[in-house]
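Our preliminary data section would be incomplete without showing what the modeling component actually yields. Below, a chain of 450 amino acids is followed by its predicted structure, encoded as tokens that our downstream tools consume directly.
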Amino acid sequence: MTVLPSIRQRLSRALIGISLAWGVAVAATVWLVVRSEVDELLDSTLEESAEILHGLLSFNAGQLPLREGASLPKLDHHERLVWQIVDPAQNVLLRSYQAPELALAPQRAAGLSSVTDDWRVYGMPMRATGDILYVAQRGSDRRKARLVAATFSAGAALVIGMLCAAWLRSRVRQELEPITSMSTDVTHFDPVRLDSFLKQPTRAELVPMHDAISDLGTRLAKRLANERAFSAHAAHALRTPLAGMVAQLAVAQRTSPPEAQLNLTRAREAADRLRRVVTALLTMFRTGGDVKWQAVDIADIVAHLPFETLSVTTDEPANIHADPDLIAAALLNLFDNSLRNGATMVWVTARCESDGTRIAVYDDGTGIPEFERERLQVALDSQNYEGQTGLGLMLADLVARAHGGQLRLLQISSGCLIEMGLGLPADIRSHATTSAAADVMKNPRSNTRW
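Predicted structure:
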């Protein structure tokens, strides 16, 4: 079975992909921008700190303890910025307590410079003494600052992108819901029934589809009504001549010579069969295929079927819920099939179950070969009647399906066994479901299967 692509899934995947790609692109952009801005901010901090220290140190230059290896007292905190005063010979004359003992820059350098990945240095010459002031940041501190800032910014952008994707997916589901709702309405739309109609669409895009389906339903209903009217008139027109033909054949059979009896018998049987087919068709078209549920006795239905040459036996009276006219039409066709296949006796049984009724028709005819039975069952299951099944099986299956069931050809050693499954009317089905639920609530263990 070919699985068609889903508009909802395709739109959802596209939106999720676009949102994630957008989130990743924004996150990468934010990462690069934040990293660049953090570097610029840290460099500006170095420069500003160097200017402040230069001013302070220049103002008190005469009081500074400038000697090789001198450092300020150690304080109980981590220095984010360290500094040094280095003479022209690259000797460190004074430094902060966490600054390295060697000059931060291997060569005298003013302005910003990087010493491998360990230090970012800003050098500022001290004109009065010829020394140079170095202010530096550790490379690890700078990388950590960049990582934290960029990670939080990029993560926030990515989370926002995913939230947008979830929101867009929800919106797609909401916007496509009218299509699903309309599909459900079309499933229950029966153009033949006057009280059946399609609900007005809630989206402008669905109006052309709604109008097309409604127009198609109207045309189908008109065509079906015309076909039913023609078939009903044709059946009525055939019924009276056929009855007269059967009567005339019966009279001719009684008065004809022995050598004509065989031909007259065959003609009478053919006329009888044609009369039964017309009767079944007339019943089908009179009901229109609509099920008029009633509580009926299957034995009473069988007793009124016109089969003089076939012995039909039923069980004790069994009340079922069905449309008596449709069931009579189905049984007429099944009995006719039995008669054509050499049956002289037919047994009809009906049993009521929790989910419906099973009507079994068994005859003593030649039966159906196994390979043919399987082929016919496949045709009935798929409702592929044309060129696969005869009129009798097709009409019986249509009647069963109108009642919410199906026709089954059961395997049997001799003869033919056909089971017509019927559902239940809506009110009884609802009552049965409610009763079953109540039984479970009263005794939860009763439905436990071991």
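The chain has nine helices and 13 strands. The chain has a mean pLDDT of 78. Preliminary results of this kind motivate Aim 1 of the renewal.
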